User: What shape does this take?
Amino acid sequence: MNSQHFSTKERILGAAEQLFARLGFAGASLRQVTAAANVNLAAVNYHFGSKENLINEVFRRRLDELNAHRLQALDQALARPGAGLEDLLAAFIHPALDLSLDRGGGGAFVRVLARAYAEHNDALRKFLSDNYGHVMKRFHAAFAQRLPDLDKEELYWRLDIVAGALTYAMADFGVIKRKSGVTEQQHRERSAEHLIRFAAAGLRAP
Amino acid sequence: MNSQHFSTKERILGAAEQLFARLGFAGASLRQVTAAANVNLAAVNYHFGSKENLINEVFRRRLDELNAHRLQALDQALARPGAGLEDLLAAFIHPALDLSLDRGGGGAFVRVLARAYAEHNDALRKFLSDNYGHVMKRFHAAFAQRLPDLDKEELYWRLDIVAGALTYAMADFGVIKRKSGVTEQQHRERSAEHLIRFAAAGLRAP
DNA sequence: TCGTAGGTAAAACGGGCGTTTGAATGCTAC
DNA sequence: GTAGCATTCAAACGCCCGTTTTACCTACGA
Assistant: This one.
């Protein structure tokens, strides 16, 4: 059968992403995932080894691209001489917002990300830190340079809050419907503006 | 035996709160809960009817008190003539922060709350909206009065982001250890200041 | 003192879980 | 064409799930 365009692995990843977003990692079973992917149950353990590894690969598939876009946007922002807080925030937000408003499964993935944030799952945190920690480090350094009056601890706090707030907000963007008469592009730009202004004001607060 | 000070119901609620915070609603089983509570497995269904209802009661036990404190703090803030944004935010944040830094299970509960926020569980959302929607309405009205330049939609956005950010942040407070040489009271006050300043700046952003 | 109601206990219910197995299938290179 | 490999498949593995059942204990009012 397998008449779809995508490979078994890709269909499993897509179905897993949707179901993890809706039901959580523990709440979505491999039987649900493989049924949604139109794939045999054993395919998950054949291609991914275990459920936990499947979870990791769901993250890797999106985060490789997302973080590449973020670093690229950060480099472009830093290349400009007068780059300010808002430009750094835009570099962080725009790639994720593009993902969350994507026609593909990206919206689901941002909700998965928000779940992971709330879960405090140690194994997952280690995986994310090992694979993508350098991205947050680069943003942290760029923010630190532009917020010299904040001591290290205070900056850490605020970036943590900002990251949580943005993750949560972007997870919601996929769910909340836009007003009629607004194109998706307009909606996306206005959303990004909201988030950037909000976060910048929070970071700059005395 | 039941040699503990607390009733079977209370011990189940406490153990469920801890395990839901750590493992999630789907991830924590009633066998784990009843074992941690030192109670027979059947006690959950006897006292609560079902797992889903147990989840609801875990929320009710804390939210009745939390929202009463929030409304009380809001009334006190509104009674003062010059009450501003920061006072409203303090009324919202302080009761939750007290809970999250509580010696009892409050810290776990705030993490449960953050999970519920990320889950978008329909049944749970309905329960929370039915039982505690009026609290958010009162805060919303108070904020609207102090932010007349924001249109309805914009205010809705920002309060949503603020609520999400604060929920995330407070869930983290219970996890992050305070610096040595800082009393818990100092830590609490500084944390509240951070959150209030951050949120106020975000709400006031042009 | 007995009957009864409220609570606790152990055991079992059917079913879903993640994972493994071993045979069947498709595909590529010789 | 056939050997060899990668993939798919149905079936089963043992285990844990939420819930129910049935019996037992205990306390208290009649």
